[in-house]
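Re-run requested by the PI after the first attempt was lost when the workstation crashed. Everything re-entered from the original request form. Ligand of interest: adenosine-5'-diphosphate.
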Amino acid sequence: METKEFKAESKRLLDMMINSIYTHREIFLRELLSNASDAIDKIYYKALTDDTLTFDKDEYYIKIEADKNTRTLKITDTGIGMTKEELESHLGTIAKSGSLAFKSENELKDGHDIIGQFGVGFYSAFMVADTVTVISKALGSNEAYKWESAGAEGYTITPCEKDSVGTDIILKLKENTEDENYDEYLEEYRLKSIVKKYSDFIRYPIKMDVTKSRKKSDSDNEYEEYQEEETINSMVPIWRKNKSELTDEDYNNFYMEKHYGFDKPLRHIHISVDGAVRYNAILYIPEKIPFDYYSPEYEKGLELYSSGVLIMNKCADLLPDYFSFVKGMVDSEDLSLNISREMLQHDRQLKLISKNISKKIKSELTSLLKNDREKYEEFYKAFGRQLKFGVYSEFGTHKEELQDLLMFYSSKKKKQVTLDEYVSRMSESQKFIYYATGDTIERIEKLPQTELVAEKGYEILYFTDDIDEFAIKMLMAFKDKEFKNVASGDLGIEADEVEKVTAEEEKENKELFEFMKNLLSGKVKDVRISKRLKSHPVCLTADGEVSIEMEKVLNMMPNNQNVKADKVLEINVHHDVFASLKAAFENDKDKLTLYTHLLYNQALLIEGLPIEDPVDFTNDICKIMV
Ligand code: ADP
Ligand code: MG
């Protein structure tokens, strides 16, 4: 008999299971029962579309049997079974290997995280068993096969006998150790409580022989024990239950059971609608970003059930992109069962449900923002970016819906604030909602361009995300207040005194500015006197629609069109440096050339833009040092 090796990734996961010090080993049962239930679902679903098959409810069940003598635990199902090839491919490799690849070596070494957070599936059996045996007969086949493995060394597959279609999983429990008692998984009460905790809602009966006692005879008070088969799960799906019957823990367990995420959900939404279209839904807002969330591999969608039967794993049409982080399921009796993917897209009922769901999510988030700011901020840290994308994408179709959910860091409050909060604090004289862009809050804090606006006492929103300015451009205004980049041409700030001085100075130094402008031709559009600088000598600003930040973002994109902002070098005429410029203009044009290049390069650095020739720049600095 040939022993086959596990695929590398599987072996790694398996090693982790075998050596795990994980404390929630009990979840192995949840995994095996959920596989059994999936397998019955598959037959049920087949029967719906295949006339030669019938589904008699009584014939489908899962059974748990514990044998203390042999220390084995057996889980039997009457599901679809596996062929020899399926045993090979489904149990020899893990479907989740892709996700595992995303995890760092360190995380894998720890193991703890993976087991607790991932749906580890079938291999979790090795947390409690030395040997796992799977005996299976596939639907439509007259051969049965036995898959057996004692861990990382590999597995064997041999033909065997089995009467009926379905699968038996037999676990030979590990020997007890000082710290671990595996015998508990042979105890009736323990098995029952694990089933109740994780698998209560499974739609098929989970049967077990339970010990009961009865009076021996009428005459005396002696009792005898006997065994009777009992269904130990309630079989009512959680989404059909009354909200008042359910605890947070129930919802969290369902989230884990379904492998919706690796985290605990931040919030759950339980919906029961009995209107134009009837449906139940349980939705979750995750706490943490899925590791692949902002990658193309991430697939949005909700599980779709029709009258309790799973018909699609990830129905994308149920969620708009901007809520793609939402997990969960929808069950409706108004959907036809054997509906195809193409038909679903045009299904009127589905559209209604989807619209309704979006509304509920929006209102849940709004209430979170209002009533539990801390949690909302946590949520926003993870998924705020997606909301901003939502404002920007599809030409701003959804901006009205999403604008109230946005938050940005405020110069005044030193934390995230909503646009509504900002506008409510605006003074009479303030015409615009001001914002500044940069890589980090610390960097924006130091930007020379913010000086005038800050001095005026106006609040400034800090945009540190590359999507921020694009989203805001799409919004254009909030409550009739337009947005204004502090680095844009006209700041809308009345300062007569400043205007007058500027006009005079401009006239006086016209030739100096012309000279500098010529030196920087092709690099900046203009050299001007700054109205916004207070203590810094120079800064770069932009005329027109494209800001410097936007130029940076656009040029990082793969299909970059080499978009350029119309840059302006602004000079602070009240700074001592300006006196030096004037002197150099009178006496030493070479010096002025040197100074101009230095100032321009400094302004680039402040903006976080690359200097075209760093060697030239450092040579220039050396020149003024010696
Ligand atoms: P998942 O359930 O997420 O696909 P598992 O590791 O739990 O991952 O199971 C791997 C695969 O093995 C399943 O997708 C299924 O095809 C097969 N399988 C496991 N248990 C059973 C079973 N009891 N009956 C039929 N197929 C099963
Ligand atoms: Mg599974």
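Saved to the shared folder this time. The first helix runs from residue 8 to 18.
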